[in-house]
Design goal:
Oligomer: single chain
CATH superfamily of the largest domain: Diaminopimelate Epimerase, Chain A, domain 1
Order of helices and strands: EEHEEEHEEEEEEEHEEEHEEEE
Shape: globular
Largest sheet: 17 strands, mixed
Radius of gyration: 17 Å
Number of domains: 2
Structural class: alpha+beta
Low-confidence stretches: none
Number of helices: 4
Helix content: 10-25%
CATH architecture of the largest domain: Roll
Length: about 260
């Protein structure tokens, strides 16, 4: 069965997109792991299947490279909107509204800070969590369609995130695992960030992670209502609307198209 796909990226955060709105495309965790493998497959940070939706222009189903499903993907939503022209996109985490034009923006919803919304395994202050992993202390947690932990550090590049990321991701404190961001506040309107994504590892960019870093920084009164989040793959602009929703804008690009035998 030869199936067409599109490879895209948003600030280096790359995706393989299958369109199953007209006919079913069989995907399961084992097949996703193979397709996402950068040596034996196509290679991507997340794999998408576009499906029909009764509530929106389409439903975006998201898989991590390890075969697990994710609730939301900000950069991926922007890519899908640019590819299809969809303006209302349904995900497992809810509806996402995309904007047209060169900004390639999407509304990411309101941050959730309640411990059981993230979720954590026990009640805890999510603004200044009384936990630490080696030198990473005083983290904040937030749900942005996915669970996120954010730690503010002096130098994100100096943090051994490839080693600490999987340890924190799998910590029993996070029953649904967690994305881990290490961030530096460079000014009232600029944050530098690296992210370990659950089920994916280190990525060049993470849209929900950028929103999470902004949301925790905003809650701690460290940034203004709009800030650039600089990631290894590029910059994303995050802003807070009057209704509390976060808006994310940034670059998207189509890399190539092809077919693959399933």
């Amino acid at each position: 069965m030869a199936v067409p796909f599109v490879k895209m990226h948003g600030a280096g955060n790359d995706f393989v997109i299958f369109d199953a709105r007209e006919q079913p495309i069989p995907l399961d965790p084992a097949r996703v792991r193979l397709l996402a493998d950068r040596h034996r497959g196509i290679g991507c940070d997340q794999l998408f299947r576009l499906e029909p939706s009764a509530r929106a222009d389409l439903f975006l189903r998201i898989w991590n490279p390890d075969g697990t499903e994710a609730g939301a993907c900000g950069n991926g939503t922007r890519c899908v909107a640019a590819l299809t022209g969809a303006r209302l996109i349904e995900t497992a985490a809810g509806l996402r509204e995309a904007e047209g034009g060169e900004g390639h923006a999407v509304l990411m919803g309101q941050p959730r800070f309640a411990w059981d919304a993230i979720p954590l395994a026990m009640p805890m202050d999510t603004l200044h969590m009384p936990v630490a992993w080696e030198g990473l202390s005083d983290p904040g947690a937030v749900w942005m369609g996915n669970p996120h932990l954010v730690v503010f550090v002096e130098d994100p590049d100096a943090v051994p995130l490839a080693r600490l990321g999987p340890l924190i991701e799998q910590d029993p404190l996070f029953p649904e695992r967690v994305n881990v961001g290490v961030a530096r506040i460079e000014s009232r309107d600029r944050i530098r960030l690296r992210v370990w994504e659950r089920g994916a590892g280190l990525t060049l960019a993470c849209g929900s992670g950028a929103c999470a870093a902004f949301a925790v920084a905003r809650r701690r009164r460290l940034v203004d209502s709009s800030a650039t989040v600089a990631l290894p793959g590029g910059d994303l602009l995050i802003s807070e609307r009057e209704d509390g929703q976060l808006r994310m804008a940034g670059p998207v690009a189509e890399v190539f198209r092809g077919t693959v035998e399933l």
